[in-house]
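User: tokens in, sequence out, please.
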């Protein structure tokens, strides 16, 4: 299987993006448009844009960071959408897809030589006191099918979804969490888990007691 094509002026960024895409394909499967290239470039905000006219994706990361791993983190998070944009959970554009993108970023950093930065981010998320309920997360306007960058994230959104995702990963493992991308809703997916973890998973994803 040929790797997904990447365009980037910076050779190190291109190589990182290629490896990150390989990880995403291994976790979430081949996208329906593997021949479409993905251009990686700096922008004012991070995001992923899909152009049916140009038959290309563009992933943006914010410039001006002091450390390269900060750029890599944003790129890895957005590359999740390049691979999984058409999957049922991602197509819904909700907070669960955002959770998966953050978990993808952390997992890529772990595998690609930046585990200390991944652990720093995990600790940062857990230290954030602004925790949103599932109802509040569901009210956030996230991503659409054309411009795949988040348009509104209330304060505490990123930390809230990250902590829920980290808790879920600790409960059932990363490979099982990856299968959530193919679920059209969380309820049936939770029902398919082992009985001994269903209640905990339901509490994480729905706030059910």
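Assistant: Sequence out:
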């Amino acid at each position: 299987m040929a790797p997904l094509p990447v365009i980037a002026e910076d050779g190190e960024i291109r190589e990182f993006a290629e490896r990150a895409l390989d990880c995403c394909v291994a976790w979430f499967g081949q996208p329906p448009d593997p021949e479409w290239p993905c251009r990686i470039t700096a922008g004012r905000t991070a995001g992923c844009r899909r152009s049916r006219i140009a038959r290309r994706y563009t992933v943006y990361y914010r410039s001006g960071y002091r450390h390269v791993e900060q750029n890599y983190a944003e790129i890895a998070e957005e590359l999740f959408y390049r691979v999984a944009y058409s999957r049922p959970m991602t197509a819904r554009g909700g907070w669960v897809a955002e959770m998966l993108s953050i978990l993808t970023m952390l997992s890529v950093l772990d595998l690609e030589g930046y585990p200390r930065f991944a652990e720093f981010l995990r600790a940062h998320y857990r230290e954030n006191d602004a925790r949103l309920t599932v109802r509040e997360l569901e009210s956030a306007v996230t991503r659409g099918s054309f411009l795949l960058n988040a348009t509104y994230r209330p304060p505490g959104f990123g930390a809230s979804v990250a902590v829920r995702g980290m808790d879920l990963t600790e409960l059932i493992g990363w490979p099982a969490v990856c299968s959530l991308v193919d679920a059209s809703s969380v309820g049936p997916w939770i029902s398919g888990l082992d009985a001994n973890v269903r209640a905990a998973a339901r509490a994480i994803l729905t706030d059910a007691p």
